[in-house]
Amino acid sequence: MATENDAHVSEALPWYVNGTLAPDRRAEVDDHLRGCARCRAELEWLVRLRADVQASTPASQGDLGLSRFLDRIASESNVVPLRRPERPRWMGPALALAAGVLVVQGVVIGVMLHERSQTLQPLSGPPAARGTLLQVTFVPTATEAQIRGAVIAAGAEIVAGPGALGIYTLSVAPERLGAATHALEEASGIVASVSRVPQ
Amino acid sequence: MATDDEQARVWLERIGAGDQGAMAQFYRAFGAQVHAFALRQLGNAGEAEDVVVDTMYEVWATARRFAGQSLVRTWLFSIARHRLLDRLRKRRPLESVDVDELAEVLASDDEGGFEALARQQRAEHVARCLEKLSEEHRECLHLVFYEELPLAEVAQIQSCPENTVKTRLFHARQKMKRCLERRLGLEREDGD
């Protein structure tokens, strides 16, 4: 006949079987099992049930909707903000002043260049707008051949980069955005990050 | 290997900032678990995949709202559960065992064929008995014996007290035991 203690132990058995019972409670159950054939039989049945539940779950196959999910968020997101590191408040005005100086310098240089009638192509800078733009960084150990292979596999084209921070700007056809992003992520672990450039 | 909660939190933070790369990594890490969870209830791989997509879309949209007071996995399964409940009315019956495939195995002279058949038939009985359970009981068994979650986490996902989880599991065990004994007992009679 089952005792109250049997019931108390029996309700803990599922978590004894799945390995998540707290150590002190587990020791209590171990102690009880040594002297209770009924609970040992219940334990054996639960071990079998656990195996049955696991065996009855078919392995998930395919990308489980990842490609269409990426296409969905790409088509619904007009702007994907890049992560910006947090800056102290005092840096805001200082940066604004520095930016102002740079703008003035840029205007002066621009005027000088125009007067010299030379067309300079920056090594990395705002790319020509064509297709949808992605900014991609690769891991430091990625070789040029690997980078080239990843870009080709994604059906993309390098339009700028690498910049000072190692960022490449790629252009992809808008309808291929989701698949291209997915392909870059799958690129043998050489892609560090991918994000869309607001246009 | 289970995804570390720390790693999942890093991804969530990046997802909250709109990082699609982090979202893809999160999807790959947890997609199969959510799929198995949904498949258990729906019995249809295509519909289960829809639940994965819907769940992950909610993660994408609400990552910033994750307060960090539970494991990421718990939060994710809670979302999946709500998406799943929305779909349960469209559930289709489980696919039946392929009779021709069974016949082929039975006809085989290979002794291993009979063992494989016995395993397949037991799996079929288990699946049918699981089908007969209520959604809550079936879900409870899945979380405890497939996902192997601790009691507290199961209670959080099912939004109920721990004692309720224990009660559900008690009834689920009893029903599975009676069902399997009946089905396996009938099989033995047929085989006599």
Characterise the protein shown here.
- The complex is a heterodimer of chains A (199) and B (192).
- Chain A is an alpha+beta fold and 199 residues long.
- Chain A contains 8 helices and 4 strands; from the N terminus they run ααααααβαββαβ.
- A 4-stranded antiparallel β-sheet of chain A has the order 2-3-1-4, with helices on one face.
- In chain A, α5 (66-76) crosses α8.
- Chain A starts with a helix and ends with a strand.
- Residues 79-85 and 119-129 of chain A have low confidence and may be disordered.
- Chain B is mostly helical.
- Chain B is built from 9 helices and no strands.
- In chain B, α3 crosses α4 and α8 packs across α9 (162-191).
- CA gyration radius of chain B, whole angstroms: 20 Å
Alpha plus pi helix count of chain A: 8
**Oligomer category:** heterodimer
Order of helices and strands of chain B: HHHHHHHHH
Q: Outline the biggest β-sheet of chain A.
A: 4 strands, antiparallel
Outline the fold blueprint.
The complex is a heterodimer of chains A (199) and B (192).
Chain A (H helix, E strand, L loop, with lengths): L3 H7 L2 H5 L5 H12 L2 H19 L10 H11 L14 H26 L15 E7 L5 H10 L3 E4 L6 E6 L4 H9 L5 E6 L3
Antiparallel strand pairs in A: 1-3, 1-4, 2-3
Helix pairs in contact in A: 5-8
Chain B lengths: L4 H12 L3 H23 L2 H18 L9 H16 L11 H9 L3 H22 L2 H12 L4 H7 L4 H30 L1
Helix pairs in contact in B: 1-2, 2-3, 2-4, 3-4, 4-8, 6-9, 7-9, 8-9
Q: What characteristics describe this protein?
A:
heterodimer, A: 199 residues, alpha+beta, four-stranded antiparallel sheet, 50% helix, 12% strand, B: 192 residues, mainly alpha, 0% strand
